[in-house]
Amino acid sequence: MTFRRFLKPFLLLALLLGAGSSLWAAPAVQAVLFTSPYCPHCRHLKQDGFPQQFRDKYNGTVELVEYDLTEQANNVLFFQTLQAYQLDSAGIPMLVVGETVLQGYPTQIGTGADEAVQKAIANGETTRVPGLKPLAKPAPAQTAAKTQAPAEQTAKTEPAEQPVKPAEQPAAEPAPTEETAAAQPTPAEETPVSAEEAAAQAEAAQLQAHEALFSQITLWAIIGAGLADGINPCAFAVIVFFVSFLAAYKYTKKEIIVVGTAYCASVFLAYLLMGLGAFHALYAMKGFRYVTLVVQWGTIVLCVLFLALSLYDFIVYQRTKKSEKMLLQLPKSYKEYIHKVMRFFLRDKHSSMWRLMLAAFAVGFVVSGVEAVCTGQVYLPTCVVILKEAGSQSWKAAEYLILYNLMFVLPLVLVFVLTLCGKESATFNNWLKKHLGLSKFLLCCVFLGLLLLMLANMF
Known about the structure:
2 domains, 4-stranded mixed sheet, Glutaredoxin, mainly alpha
């Protein structure tokens, strides 16, 4: 008897500790992560192992649920979540924790996830994502009421002595189980979304994922187009003549550094200004649908034409090994004019360094304007492709224009560096003749790639 008297308190204490541990083990808040395999930032998040690190860090405290936006049902949940939190912007990856929504990685999610979790736990916030299964966790007040006053609760659930008539008796509400709790609508679901709206939202999310992929493809297309345009026979022939001109007038290394730097900077700036001018002209016409369609289809036709002409030049040169019969090249009169401009500004190499630098800068601007007749064949379609990144991402369009021109002047810079290292103009001329067919083939690839990108943009 005495043994039982001592044993009962220990059993009661063990039961209370077990119940308390089960309560502590239950997650306190839910977190939802929306990602897409087409999104580069989402792939960065996955590669860094953020989801697993998040789960390990908040094991037993936070339940992390992931949704892949390539599934149509998850697209609907994504846009319903935006409506629930009254958000106008839709950016992925998106992490929702309680009342906090973080968009972008590593910017917002990487720096604000911990603070969002602590805030949600401290304030007892609920993550309002439609269809999210609520946490199965008994409230402490209900648990205490059940353990302390079972008789009183039983008395409350007993039927009344005077039964209500069947016609007046209200319908009984079943006890909330895990299945029925999941089926019950959340506050965000109280305003149901029609099938048309859900389909439109799903299409918009899929379009956003495809645009992320398009942006990534466009980046490499811009790099390739700039490099191919930089070794374009039109541009490279001018570079070779410029180097031979400096050698003929016996410029010193110091003078070559000054002239080369000023000339490269001038070409970069001139082409960037031409690109910005063309881009702003195209952007100004963006609001006129029919004008935009004419520009887009006209550029597509030009791409097809230049692709055919580049292919013709490639075949002709491979057969004859002569550049005179090629169609896409600077006219002879234009070449002679460029040579006259270089001689006029740079023949007096004994001028001061400042005058020499200004002369080289002027030559770069004039030559770029004349040379654009040939190099613009690639530049204009590239600006049309870049136009897709305008609007909400105008900064990306500007980055693409700068990147293109950096790639364009890269061969020019390389030639000047090799000239300083002792390479002669004949070396570059022989290289151009040897790889003229390859440069034409690269131009064919560029025109084909730009053509496919523009068709993908329209359809």
